[in-house]
Amino acid sequence: MRGKPLTPEKVIEKLQEALGEAILSHGMKEYTVGIAKKRSYREIWMEIDRKAFRKAVEEIFRLDYPHLHFIMGEDSGGDMIKMIYGFALYHGLPWEQVSIVLKFNLPKSELVLPTITDLMPGAETNEREIREMLGIEFEGLKNKRHLFLPDDWPEGKYPWRRDEYGVEDMVKHTHKSVKEIRKGRGE
Amino acid sequence: MMAKTQYYVPVGPIHPALKEPIRVEAEVEGERIVRVDVKRGFAHRGIEYMGMKRNAIQTLYLSERICGICSISHPYAFVIGSEKALGIEAPPRAQYIRPIIAELERIHSHILWLGVVAHEMGFDSLLFWTWKGREKVLDLLELLTGNRINYSVFMIGGVRRDIKESQIKAIKDAIDFYRIFTEEMKNVFLSDPVYKARTRGVAQLSREMALKLNVCGPVARAAGLRMDVRQDNPYDAYADIEVRAIVPQDIVGEARGDAYDITLVRLYEIEQSLDIIEFCIENMPEGRIMAIPNYVVLLSKIKKTKGEAIGMHEAPRGEVVHYFKYDGTRDGPAVWKVVAPSYNNINSWAPLLLGAEVADIPIVVAYIDPCMCCNDRVAVVRDRDGRIMDYSLIHRKAVEKTMRLKRELGVRA
Q1: Does B226 score more than 70 pLDDT?
Q2: Distance from CA of B157 to the nearest CA of A (A)
Q3: Residue B233 to residue A41, Cβ atoms within 8 A
Q4: Which range, A42-51, B347-356, B403-412, is most confident?
Q5: Are B322 and B311 in contact (CB under 8 A)?
Q6: Is B271 a residue whose pLDDT tops 80?
Q7: Is the predicted pLDDT of residue B210 greater than 60, yes or no?
Q8: Chain B residues within 8 A of A171 when measuring between CB atoms
Q9: What is the dihedral of CA B141, B143, B144, B146, to 10 degrees?
Q10: Any domain includes A3
């Protein structure tokens, strides 16, 4: 059975009990909606130590079986990739849903993460996408075939990377202005 | 190597049930499916990559082109997410116009699905009848926005077109029409014994499985999960309306999560959409429709903004999530991640097809209303030994099974 939904403050407290020092920073974002009657909901945004990632996810699953919004990684060109996991707790309960966004840095020298597919088999899609788009290995992920990219996609090329592993050299016109394209042609 | 009794059945990438390409590879023993593999990526255009290179207004209309059928759902999640990141709020009137467009889209999308699933079973006259009824909502959308699809009517901080008095009359007429039409569709789909026999127990997803496979939208609701972004995390006028998720247990007492329940959920959601539109036109506030009408000002505000947010919208097929990060150096998103409902809902195909019959493939594939929002263009179709059954053969099998059930149930054609 599902437990009683906790408030975002309580959820943060629970996570603090479980993770302690590994929570580097946390905050709540409050959004007000409605015209006739103003009401608000809150989201939890949390920065954690990458070593505590698996423990954090396990704690989230202990509170309530979540819905996984998305997994995303941001490469801003440096030697770190920022991983962003979005979960929703207490979905299906009006105004009670608590979205939790977990963020942590992953050094490019060690792009390995534990899988969460053992807790949620549906996350396979997300992990396979991140694997091919950013080159992050998931330990324990069974199906490692390409998801969206074709089977003959060149190795060591990751579309969302902004370093030498990126695809800038494979892309021609998608994001250039007409002016730039004409200039390139010498017109 | 495959044993002699096993055959290899590829469905897709070109498949009449799909508006877009995907491939299901099944290995069958007799009629039973023993192994399934789903291949996506045949229409992947790298839209997220492009969006991270363009400005926010360009990306907004690019997001509209992610999908033709739900061409307001992605812009909706985009504007909600952007407004959260930028800290602006759309004027009240715009917050009431947006749900009208979104719900009209839900109506046409659901009717489209009902037609497709009827076709998959071999009820082609039902396909033409439902799609004829769908034309009216497309005409209405054209009247309101100028386009049948890709309405280009949303903007960060508002909408680009107001709804006039004369248009409100057209909306009211359409609501009256669809009240009757939905009632008729309910009669045709839900009380037909052959439709029931063909869908009851087919593509059955338990509540447990629905949670674990991370599915959303009508697929999750048919399995009994009360998941609906409009209810869980309301936005715009939905916060005033108190939308409640439509689940089979509220209508017929129990949720079985099969193709019949999904039909039920979709049909009742059309009525819910009509109620929402009615509420919006009756309570629409007066006033402006854009928070920042000048695009140059809007873009320069985006350029100065550092912030991130998630935008969510309940599309006809389920939850659309956009994650944004504006980093204060570009006038567009520095990071943009789109998760469309079919991304999660396709997870259900492989488990559902295992042990099913070949004649059920079209229904399992069609029942989630797949929409390949995130796919690849570079298609490499492998060659493989084994007898290949093409789609026309599978479709014929699906029609044959329907006919057989018709005979067994004693229904006259």
Answers
A1: yes
A2: 14
A3: yes
A4: A42-51
A5: yes
A6: yes
A7: yes
A8: 46, 49
A9: 90
A10: no
Q: Which two tokens stand for residue B126?
A: 């039902």
Phi and psi at residue A106, in whole multiples of 5°? -125, 120
Q: What is the pLDDT of residues A93-109, one digit of tens each?
A: 888 889 999 999 999 99
Residue with tokens 């309301």: B234
- Residue A155 exposed, middle or buried by CB count within 10 Å (0-12, 13-18, 19+): exposed
**Would you mind telling me the total number of residues written for chain A in this entry?**
187
- Tokens for B96, please give them: 């009431």
Hey, of B221, B339, B382, which one would you mutate to test binding to chain A, going by the most A CBs within 10 A of its CB?
A: B339
Q: Assess if residue A2 is contained within a domain.
A: no
Measure B89 CA to nearest chain A CA, in Å.
9
pLDDT of B72 above 70: yes
Q: Spell out which residues of chain B touch residue A95, defining contact as CB-CB under 8 Å.
A: 232, 234
User: Do the Cβ atoms of A33 and B234 come within 8 Å?
Assistant: yes
Please compute the mean of the pLDDT values over residues A38-54 and round it to a whole number.
92
| Separation in Å, CA of A45 to nearest CA in chain B | 10
- Global pTM exceeds 0.90: no
Domain assignment of residue A1, yes or no: no
At A22, list the tokens.
Answer: 């590994």
Per-residue model confidence as pLDDT tens digits over B178-206: 999 999 999 999 988 988 888 888 878 88
A151 contact residues in B (CB cutoff 8 A): 380, 382
* The total number of structural domains that make up chain A: 1
> Above 90 in pLDDT, residue B117?
no
Q: Which residues contact B26 (CB under 8 A, 6 or more apart)?
A: B8, B9, B10, B11, B33, B35, B36, B37, B353, B358, B361
What residues contact B126, with CB distance under 8 A and at least 6 apart? B115, B118, B119, B188
**Which has more confidence, A163 or B15?**
A163
Show the domains of chain B with their CATH numbers. Answer: 6-43+346-409 (no CATH), 47-343 (1.10.645.10)
Torsion-angle region of residue B159: left (phi > 0), alpha (psi -120 to 50) or beta?
beta
**CATH number of the structural domain spanning residue A96:** 3.30.460.80
B47 neighbors B30 (Cβ within 8 angstroms): no
d(CA B41, CA A158): 15
Average pLDDT, chain A: 87
A14 is in which domain, residue-wise?
A: 8-185
Measured from the Cβ of residue B167, the count of other Cβ atoms closer than 10 Å reads 16
Position of tokens 């050094």? A107
Complex confidence, ipTM: 0.88
Strand, helix or coil for residue B396: helix
Task: Look at residues B262, B412, B244 and name the one whose alpha carbon lies nearest to residue B348.
Answer: B262
